[in-house]
């Protein structure tokens, strides 16, 4: 019942309450879609450090958190923003400089790992990875695993199928569960109780949400519970999983939020240019995040004309005729 009261928070308060130095944290979205960017920028403003970050496939949010020095370790399937940065640039620089430790999995494996956490089981079996080097190449050493109680002893385990040849496979891969201190996702609609609705692809957000000790939901629209009850089959996350609800219009900008706005190609291109040069990136951090009070002020800097250009068409859910070069 504790999660039923007082969930409606300001973003600063939600981040201050649930995201702490050294936290195990996951973020929702996928590459350029529905990244919880307003929360990511607030984490950077509050100077969080040594985060152990988990993501399915992500791009902008991962690169901004890594670039700002917030992340110590990362577990992920893919980090990139398509044509703007096929591999996230600050992420790549940090790996090459030995500034972060990274362990990689397939997208399916990451989804199963979050699902295992949501189910409360220590692992789930799959075939994903059989015959690949993902099983044999570890990002975290055996010695590190012995000293870090929150890391499994092994990255993955391959074992004989306990049912013999049932299912037409002799071997299965066991992937360890992920349980985070806090997960942050951005959704289209939520009510004050925490019921949340995702339109379009949900990626692995629902599994992430249910695997977390604490869940922050940022939303484009804060709607009445009666509206959420009117179409209950469209609600993805139940209230009892949610600790904080934060109303943040354009909370995924500069990534896309299906049905509301597209990603901003001009911003992402400019960001990629900043990331290639260390002094230029420091300028970016100061001008676009650290000297900005909040997400509302950030959007004022971006300007209403730009936000209008990426507004989604109500039929397609994306911005029509957007110059994506």
From TrEMBL:
**Which organism's genome codes for this protein?**
Desulfosarcina ovata subsp. ovata
Span of the signal peptide: none
In its UniProt entry, what is this protein called? Glutaconate CoA-transferase subunit A
Q: Out of the domains of life, which is the source? A: Bacteria
- InterPro entries, A to Z: CoA_trans_fam_I (IPR004165), NagB/RpiA_transferase-like (IPR037171)
Q: Name one Pfam family in it.
A: CoA_trans
Gene3D superfamilies linked: 3.30.30.40, Glutaconate Coenzyme A-transferase
Record's keyword terms, sorted: Transferase
Molecular-function annotations in GO: CoA-transferase activity
SUPFAM superfamilies found in the cross-reference section = NagB/RpiA/CoA transferase-like
């Amino acid at each position: 019942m504790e999660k039923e009261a007082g969930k409606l928070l300001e973003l600063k308060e939600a981040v201050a309450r649930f995201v702490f130095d050294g936290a195990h944290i996951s973020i929702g979205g996928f590459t350029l879609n529905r990244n919880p960017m307003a929360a990511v920028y607030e984490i950077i403003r509050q100077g969080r450090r040594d985060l152990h970050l988990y993501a399915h496939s992500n791009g902008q949010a991962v690169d901004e958190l890594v670039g700002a020095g917030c992340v110590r370790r990362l577990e992920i399937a893919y980090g990139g923003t398509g044509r703007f940065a096929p591999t996230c640039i600050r992420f790549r620089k940090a790996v090459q400089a030995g500034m972060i430790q990274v362990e990689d999995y397939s997208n399916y494996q990451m989804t199963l790992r979050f699902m295992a956490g949501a189910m409360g089981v220590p692992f789930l079996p799959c075939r994903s990875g059989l015959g690949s080097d993902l099983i044999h190449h570890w990002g975290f050493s055996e010695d590190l695993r012995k000293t870090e109680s929150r890391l499994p002893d092994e990255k993955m385990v391959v074992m004989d199928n306990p049912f013999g040849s049932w299912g037409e496979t002799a071997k299965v891969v066991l992937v360890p569960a992920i349980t985070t201190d806090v997960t942050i996702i951005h959704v289209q609609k939520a009510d004050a109780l925490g019921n949340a609705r995702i339109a379009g692809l949900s990626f692995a957000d629902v599994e992430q949400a249910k695997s977390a000790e604490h869940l922050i939901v940022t939303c484009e629209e804060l709607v009445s519970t009666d509206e959420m009850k009117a179409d209950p089959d469209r609600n993805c996350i139940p209230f009892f999983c949610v600790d904080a609800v934060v109303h943040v219009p354009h909370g995924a900008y500069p990534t896309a939020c299906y049905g509301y706005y597209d990603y901003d190609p001009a911003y992402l291109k400019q960001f990629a240019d900043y990331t290639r040069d260390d002094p230029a990136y420091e300028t970016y951090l100061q001008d676009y995040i650290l000297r900005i009070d909040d997400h509302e002020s950030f959007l004022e800097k971006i300007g209403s004309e730009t936000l209008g250009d990426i507004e989604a068409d109500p039929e397609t859910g994306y911005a029509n005729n957007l110059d994506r070069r």
